[in-house]
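Table 4 source record.
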Amino acid sequence: MIDRPIFRSGAIALMLALSCQATIVLAANTSQPAAASAQPPGKAAPESDPITEAERKLFLDKHFANTTRQSIDYTYRQAGPSMTTLNDKVKVDVRQRHEDGTASVNVDFLSGPNHTPIAPIDHAEGNPALLGFLERDIAEMKRFTGGSTVYFRKRIRLALADSNVKVDKVNVKFENKQVAADRIVIQPYVNDPMKEKIGKYTAKRYVFVISPNIPGGLYQVYTSEKFAESQPAQVDTSMTISGGEIPG
């Protein structure tokens, strides 16, 4: 079995902090209903496939390799017909960068009743703010649909492990400069065998924008949905680094 990136220590630490479970964020080891875990005909299970470029860039690359000791701020916004409007902050405090490219970090994820406790990580490879965003999204999907958090983690994991997922080269504006970045877009539920139970969330998109030239490696992550068939997709939740352009 290939050691997929979402099984690594940084994700383990975050998952334990968020849910006190033994499962790892986005992991699919936990038993699932047969329909939820079914693979399309001819599609091998992701554990037997090579690590995709998307997985590597999001979970294997060392996001703090070029980041000095500093605090990285993100603007978190949430809005939509079925959501409570939210404007909040996420802070990643880089306490120390190590010679191996990892970093010791603290994360302050949202505030007040929305605050999510995340334990300090001593050797973070990926940016834990990204995993915090996904965990909150998964919890919201469970609340909206009544589905299993493990099931939604698995759908995101499978989407990122798909060999067809593209990594597009883009330029983003950061602190009034153009910076080269990578953009990854997935739709975890569009080919879901149980998509009829997800309803209007079937077309939901997840967009990740990352760059080694930006502190913490993560420029932005957001989701978009079609709230009505006659309307284009709209951004409903986003997290963007301070100094970046907020989508929507």
